[in-house]
Amino acid sequence: MTELVMLRKGPDTVAEITINRPRKRNALSIPVLRALSDAFEAANHDAALRVIVLRGSGPVFCAGLDLEEAIDSSTGHESAEQLARLLETVYYSPKVTIAAVHGAALAGGAGLMAACDLAVATIDSVFGFPEVRRGLVPGLIMVFVRRLLHERHLREMLLLGEIVSAERAVEIGLVSRCVPTDMFEEQIEMLVHLALQGGPEAVSKTKAWLDEVWHHPLTDDLQRALEIHMDARGSDEAAEGLRAFLEKRQPSWKKE
Length: 256
What we know:
By secondary structure, this protein is α/β, with parallel strands linked by helices. The chain has a domain at about 5-180: 2-enoyl-CoA Hydratase, Chain A, domain 1, CATH 3.90.226. It contains 11 helices and 9 strands. The protein has helices spanning about 30-45, 65-70, 75-90, 110-115, 140-145, 150-160, 165-170, 185-195, 200-210, 220-235, 235-245, and strands at about 5-10, 15-20, 50-55, 95-100, 105, 120, 125-130, 165, 175-180. The longest helix is centred in the first third of the chain and has 16 residues, at about 75-90. It is globular. The relative contact order is 0.13.
């Protein structure tokens, strides 16, 4: 059986975690979410590691949650809880975390990217939060994305559900840097090199302080976000939006 998530510890105190579900565009199923959380927890507790690079195998970084699970009432709640666990584990990593994005980072995939400290993308990559077009509320990932974007940009991305280019993602602060494909690996290596220049304890303490300077600790925001997320998932609108997406048609929103 193919590993859904691969953890590789390389030289120079760097680990790579790769989502390995390319035929499903690295959709975040419950097994993938669990495996990712386990991989990050293992890396977080390895004192020898100082940088974690997150990648996706195949044509895209990550297309978001597995919507076949999201539409199933028997798995929807666990899916949301596992996503919250993963995002919190990534955000609170004491290591420098770098999302290496190619192809696309959409919905929960873009949220996962946003939970990382840095994000570098190929210039042909695209980004977006199309949840409202599925009748969903991007409650969990909003906790992370709102810490990156100006409110005007945040409203534009979340309310319109529009897909944007890598250049636009850099312009609004969603992505750190974008580069041509042939310079992608070189750019990641450079960021890793820069990250290793800092003192390990100083980096860890700086990351912890970054969370404290916000008005609400991330953990508190996540708990409220999980409630909002699950309320939206159980709605008739979400059921129609997800069915429409899976059936490759436009949703039929009810008119009041």
